[in-house]
């Protein structure tokens, strides 16, 4: 049964897919939110965390922050 995604979640997934951040190619959590209006950034951070929890995104902790990529094989 497919899960309904919010508009913010769709925007995040579209940006990551457009830039080919899938699987091993990842980007900083801050770079995902760049380019969106500043008044939406709080909602985008929440949407990003929900996408990680639901398995759509892979997170990789690094010494300088969290790296994000689309999960190529979601469960």
TrEMBL record:
Top-level division of the source organism's lineage: Archaea
Protein name in UniProt: Uncharacterized protein
Taxonomic placement: Archaea, Methanobacteriati, Methanobacteriota, Stenosarchaea group, Methanomicrobia
């Amino acid at each position: 049964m497919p899960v309904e995604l919010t508009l913010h979640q769709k925007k995040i997934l579209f940006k990551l897919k457009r830039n080919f951040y899938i699987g091993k190619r990842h980007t900083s959590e801050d770079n995902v939110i760049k380019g969106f209006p500043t008044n939406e950034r709080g909602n985008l951070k929440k949407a990003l965390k929900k996408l990680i929890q639901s398995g759509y995104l892979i997170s990789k902790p690094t010494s300088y922050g969290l790296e994000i990529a689309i999960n190529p094989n979601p469960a």
